[in-house]
């Protein structure tokens, strides 16, 4: 493995933009599966406007552009497993080939009358797209989604004015919890960084440790002593490179609570976050309090992350300061991102 210093010429002032452009080579989330039903859906990924449509039983992704007069196909509709343009009625099949041009005198269809298509897949309740010909890594794994023991709930997607890697790093940052989430997850009176370990495991960084947490909706619903300020539980994070995090908390009563957090770079400076909350308890309890708890946590984080400059995560580790104990995960994450840039550089 290439272990050149991370501050070499690949990681100059343009390094952040090089990192952003490599995202095109990975599976990235663009929508919840349940949001792509009978009507086409317009989304944006890495500055590219796409249309999603469920055709012939599968979600397809195309450039949101009719080659006839450049209208958005997301303004059209699905008709007999084909996508109809709303402007002049051109019809495209599931492979993006035009099969009908209403009002054409000679009924001949130009060979260029086809849509630009992209790799598209459904997994873990999300629609994923890769903008390049061959995804550099496999889809992130989320086994709880199909496990009948777990209840999985989608949390409304939210846009942040920040780079996608900033969003991911925020979620795995341990040192901010007692300060940003004082009274939610931690306490400023107990701001020491708990011991934790991490390692690379295939396509992800695995971090784990035991942490004290103040009472919350999770502990109350788990019928634990909500008055116990020293509740300790085991936590596991897996950062599936480059922009998806799986997190699971093992509560002392043998129950599990967690999130899949998938960051989608809408553009270089805007990130849409998709979150799915999973738990193997309280299936009969309302989902709204669990979702609201996560929304309130994320809202505190949003204000902080949107203030960070530059918006993109600096690819050069020397640009920002680091502490060994608090920033261990962040440093490893940034190092691996740099390696991925190198792997995909000409």
List the helices and strands and how they pair.
Layout: H1 15-22, E1 28-32, E2 41-45, E3 48-55, E4 58-63, E5 77-79, E6 82-84, E7 91-92, E8 98-100, E9 117-123, E10 126-130, E11 151-160, H2 164-171, H3 177-180, E12 196-201, E13 204-213, H4 217-221, E14 231-240, E15 244-250, E16 256-265, E17 271-279, H5 288-305, H6 328-344
Antiparallel strand pairs: 1-10, 2-3, 3-4, 4-9, 5-6, 6-7, 7-8, 9-10, 11-17, 12-13, 13-14, 14-15, 15-16, 16-17
Structure, described:
The chain is α+β, with helices and mostly antiparallel strands and 346 residues long. Helices cover 17% and strands 32% of the residues. It contains six helices and 17 strands. It has helices at residues 15-22, 164-171, 177-180, 217-221, 288-305, 328-344; strands at residues 28-32, 41-45, 48-55, 58-63, 77-79, 82-84, 91-92, 98-100, 117-123, 126-130, 151-160, 196-201, 204-213, 231-240, 244-250, 256-265, 271-279. A hairpin with a 2-residue loop joins strand 9 (117-123) and strand 10 (126-130). The radius of gyration is 22 Å and the shape is globular. A seven-stranded antiparallel β-sheet has the order 11-17-16-15-14-13-12, with helices on one face. The relative contact order is 0.17. It has two domains: 27-130, Rieske [2Fe-2S] iron-sulphur domain (Rieske Iron-sulfur Protein, 3-layer Sandwich); 143-344, Naphthalene 1,2-dioxygenase Alpha Subunit, Chain A, domain 1.
